[in-house]
């Protein structure tokens, strides 16, 4: 019998590089949140992909960017933490943006946050947006700055090159027993996935900065005899005014958000869901330790 392999792969990159899209494509289920807005990923979400005898456990980290607030700092620390613990690190960059200041900053910090036993691959994403010459020049330029173990050119959205990357990852992982039951696609508690779904709908339905000033928590999850689930969530905002915006005129906005989140969760679970949303004002939630635990982040890291 062939030896099984298993290990952790960290996807790192600037916000919006396409980490969530790539993860979802590799795992084949929507476990991470994808939107057009940056910094949507706050927690270290894992997805598990099987490839032959290998089990690849993905750590989808928040984008790495210059931290300003405590929450930002905790997110960036979590991102680097994910990289340090992984067997393989994949640096994802955007083909059309090339070597940005952000990419340079990540390259400069990569040595300090990785170890010599780790393989580090480069994945140039969004190749659908540039001509092939640009792509080859970028691959060369990046490899001149750092000797990557392998370079991949992919389109996470269109699925190009993704299978090659997956095969390479599977082959490079250390030998060992699988870490999760084969049919388990994500170890993220369902409560958190449900909260992320609601947060995604809020992000899509609200404008500008507001989505970054709120957080969603699943307070209770009740399995009902008829096979449905009752899910109660609280949306925490920092100001009274924000609460009004989320509720909307006659509660229209929150109803729309609730309907969209319920439909997605119900589709994901394959059964009926009763979703109840409440909006609460907590001026200091950005500074409260327990909010960080809920998001899988360490409060201390924000200091
Ligand atoms: N054209 C093109 N767009 C892509 C591709 N991959 C991802 N995108 C888009 O890029 C945007 C960002 O993708 P995400 O997967 O959310 O990026 P992320 O790195 O997880 O972002 P954060 O969660 O903010 O860190 C989305 O609008 C995607 O649809 C690609 O191969 N080609």
Describe the structure.
This protein is α/β, with parallel strands linked by helices. It has 2 domains: 5-172, P-loop containing nucleotide triphosphate hydrolases (Rossmann fold); 190-302, K homology (KH) domain (GMP Synthetase, Chain A, domain 3, 2-Layer Sandwich), CATH 3.30.300.20. Helix content is 36%, strand content 22%. The protein contains 9 helices and 9 strands. The chain has helices at 19-27, 70-85, 101-110, 132-145, 162-172, 190-205, 240-247, 252-269, 289-294, and strands spanning 5-13, 45-51, 54-60, 88-94, 119-125, 150-153, 215-223, 229-237, 273-281. The strands form 2 sheets. A 6-stranded mixed beta sheet has the order 2-3-1-4-5-6, with helices on both faces. The protein has a 3-stranded mixed beta sheet with strand order 7-8-9. Strand 7 and strand 8 form a beta hairpin. Helix 6 (190-205) runs antiparallel to helix 8. It is globular, with a radius of gyration of 20 Å. The N and C termini lie far apart (49 Å). The protein binds guanosine-5'-triphosphate. The site of guanosine-5'-triphosphate has 24 residues, from helix 1. Pfam families: KH_2 (PF07650), MMR_HSR1 (PF01926). One of its GO terms (biological process) is ribosomal small subunit assembly. Residues 5-175 form the Era-type G domain. Residues 206-283 form the KH type-2 domain. This is GTPase Era.
In short:
By secondary structure, the protein is α/β, with parallel strands linked by helices.
Fill in the keyword field for this structure.
Rossmann fold, 303 residues, GMP Synthetase, Chain A, domain 3, 36% helix, 9 helices, binds guanosine-5'-triphosphate, alpha/beta, 3-stranded mixed β-sheet
């Amino acid at each position: 019998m062939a030896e099984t392999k298993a290990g952790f792969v960290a996807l790192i990159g600037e916000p919006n590089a396409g980490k969530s899209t790539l993860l979802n494509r590799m795992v084949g289920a929507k476990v991470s949140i994808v939107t057009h807005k940056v910094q949507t990923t706050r927690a270290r979400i894992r997805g598990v992909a099987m490839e032959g005898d290998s089990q690849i456990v993905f750590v989808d980290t928040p984008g790495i960017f210059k931290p300003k607030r405590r929450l930002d700092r905790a997110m960036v620390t979590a991102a680097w933490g994910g990289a340090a613990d992984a067997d393989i690190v994949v640096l994802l960059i955007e083909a059309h943006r090339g070597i940005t200041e952000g990419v340079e900053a990540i390259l400069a910090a990569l040595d300090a946050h990785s170890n010599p036993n780790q393989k580090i691959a480069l994945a140039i994403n969004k190749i659908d947006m540039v001509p092939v010459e640009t792509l080859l020049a970028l691959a060369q330029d990046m490899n001149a700055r750092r000797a990557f173990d392998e370079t991949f050119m992919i389109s996470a959205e269109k699925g190009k090159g993704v299978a090659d990357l997956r095969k390479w990852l599977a082959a490079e992982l250390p030998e060992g027993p699988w870490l999760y039951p084969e049919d388990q696609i994500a170890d993220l508690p369902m409560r958190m996935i449900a909260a992320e779904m609601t947060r995604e709908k809020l992000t899509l339905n609200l404008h500008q900065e507001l989505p970054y000033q709120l957080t969603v928590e699943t307070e209770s999850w009740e399995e009902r005899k008829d096979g449905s689930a009752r899910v109660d969530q609280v949306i925490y905002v920092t100001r009274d005014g924000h609460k009004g915006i989320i509720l909307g005129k006659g509660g229209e906005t929150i109803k729309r958000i609730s309907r969209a989140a319920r439909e997605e969760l119900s589709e994901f679970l394959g059964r009926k869901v009763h979703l109840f949303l409440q909006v609460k004002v907590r001026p200091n939630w950005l500074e409260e330790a327990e909010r960080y635990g809920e998001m899988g982040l360490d409060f201390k890291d924000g200091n």
